[in-house]
Write a structure and sequence with these properties.
The protein is mainly alpha-helical. It has a single domain, classed as Hydantoin permease (Orthogonal Bundle), CATH 1.10.4160. The protein is built from 20 helices and no strands. Helix 3 crosses helix 12 and helix 13 packs across helix 15. The longest helix has about 35 residues. The termini are far apart. The structure holds phenylalanine. Phenylalanine binds next to helix 1, helix 2, helix 11 and helix 16.
């Protein structure tokens, strides 16, 4: 995201850049543990339905807002209507909440990369290895600091161009490797049951929680409701077909998430049995299950090392774009230079990330609403703030700016096929669902309803 507003050189450039931001830990780490926890097939189904309806409408909206106004979120809402500039500010809070804990998990990935490099795959496959690691006071903090430092360094020096080039090699490689690992996982004895669990929806397990979790994941994974796609849209050329691009980004993002689930969920059945407990592991699932897969694989150490390197890379491209967002907000709003904004942001990341990391061990007594600090921040952004931002955006576009404005922008180059659908979605279906989801999320968190 350069200071002067350049644009992507070609169509693929836009799709790749947006996909590079979208594909990250959300797909590889977060999606599989949610799918495992919330009923497998039913979660997958709800997620896909939401992605092609709700996610589609919201992404078209955000990219069109950006392309129309040539501004990032903070300015874009205000440019459309002064009274609604606050939505831009609200959406900018989200990356401030996500980035620190994103880097904590980035640190875990870095740790696992070094574990495989130093050939400790057998140890890592043990049940207690991961918990043993994250509950330590110093080690996870050190990995977090290195990871956050690397992110900050790239943002400060602005070497995104090199990263873009590297993504063109690393991303396809990541896809190939996820396919290989998924095939191996599924072929394990006992994995078939897991495959069925993941692919066959059990409608008996459908509940509001499933929808809430899937929707929060959708925002997170597609980088929606936090102003990021608005910024990307502001760099998009008028010649690019908006609808097609959105479909491509969605396909890419959902495809990788799907493969990650295929890699991890059958393996949970093969190696840990498909018990509620094994499936409900939450944030630790990837780190507990995958080493077991690699441990039983021929050349597992090498494949594991390459895999975690690629995950590390996918995570870095995302955390760089997250941090870049924070830095550019500070630069735009306070007139700071890149260097100063980067340093202040880095200090902020440490100040929030270190407690998040310690929250699993020595500081585990800090448990807002009974959650670990990481889960709490995750809840705050994905289940509370993002639905609020998405709701306000729908109302704003649906009734103030009018959907026609967005449709017009989307149709600068080619027709928007799903016009009627888009209007109904943005004006009625999405806002009603969002309010319902929000009320449910807060009630659930307050313990008002047991699930
Ligand atoms: N979408 C990214 C992921 O799935 C996270 C992210 C959000 C990255 C917003 C950049 C901006 O991991």
């Amino acid at each position: 995201m350069e200071k002067q507003r350049g644009s992507f050189t070609n169509k693929l450039g836009f799709v790749l850049a947006a996909a590079g931001s979208a594909v990250g830990l959300g797909n590889l780490w977060r999606f599989p543990y949610l799918a495992a926890k919330y009923g497998g097939g039913i979660f997958l189904l709800v997620y896909i339905v939401l992605a092609v309806t709700f996610g589609f409408a919201l992404m078209v909206t955000e990219i069109a807002i950006g392309r129309k106004t040539h501004l990032s979120a903070v300015g874009a809402y205000a440019a459309l209507d002064k009274r609604f500039g606050f939505i831009g500010y609200l959406s900018s809070i989200v990356p401030f909440i996500i980035t620190p804990y994103y880097c904590v998990i980035g640190g875990w990935v870095l740790k696992y990369f070094t574990v495989f490099l130093t050939n400790q795959v057998a140890e890592a496959a043990g049940d207690e290895f991961f918990t043993g690691f994250i509950t330590q006071p110093a080690a996870p903090v050190i990995f977090f600091v290195i990871y956050a430092g690397a992110t900050a360094l790239v943002v400060m020096m602005g070497v995104e161009k090199g990263i873009e080039k590297a993504s063109r090699v690393m991303m396809p490689l990541l896809i190939v490797l996820t396919v290989v690992i998924a095939v191996f996982s599924v072929a394990q004895p006992g994995a078939m049951e897991g495959l069925i669990y993941y692919l066959k929806p059990d409608f008996g397990r459908f509940s509001a929680t499933t929808v809430l979790a899937a929707m929060g994941q959708l925002f997170y994974s597609m980088s929606l409701a936090m102003g990021i796609m608005i910024t990307y849209g502001s760099y998009m050329k008028k010649e690019t077909h908006l609808e097609k691009s959105v479909r491509q980004i969605e396909l890419f993002d959902t495809g990788i998430a799907f493969m990650a689930g295929l890699m991890i969920i059958p393996a949970v059945f093969a190696f840990s049995g498909g018990s509620e407990e094994a499936l409900g592991k939450g944030p630790s699932l990837m780190f507990v299950t995958l080493p077991k897969v690699f441990n039983s694989m021929k050349f597992g150490t090498v494949i594991g090392a390459v895999f975690f390197l690629l995950v590390l890379f996918a995570a870095l491209t995302s955390s760089i774009s997250l941090m870049e967002t924070l830095v550019s907000i500070l630069m735009d709003k306070l007139g700071w230079k890149r260097r100063k904004a980067s340093i202040v942001t880095a200090v902020y990341l440490l100040a929030v990330g270190i407690p998040v990391s310690l929250g699993f061990g020595v500081w585990d007594f800090i448990a807002p609403m009974g959650m670990s600090l990481l889960d709490f921040f995750d809840f705050l952004s994905n289940s509370v703030l993002m639905p609020i931002v998405a709701f306000l955006t729908c109302i704003f576009i649906g009734f103030v700016v009018k959907p026609e404005t967005i449709i017009e922008e989307a149709e600068v180059n080619g027709e928007l096929k799903s016009k009627k659908f888009y209007k109904v979605m943005i004006k009625y279906i999405a806002p009603v669902c969002l309010v319902a989801i929000l009320i449910f999320a807060v009630m659930e968190a307050m313990g008002a309803i047991a699930v």
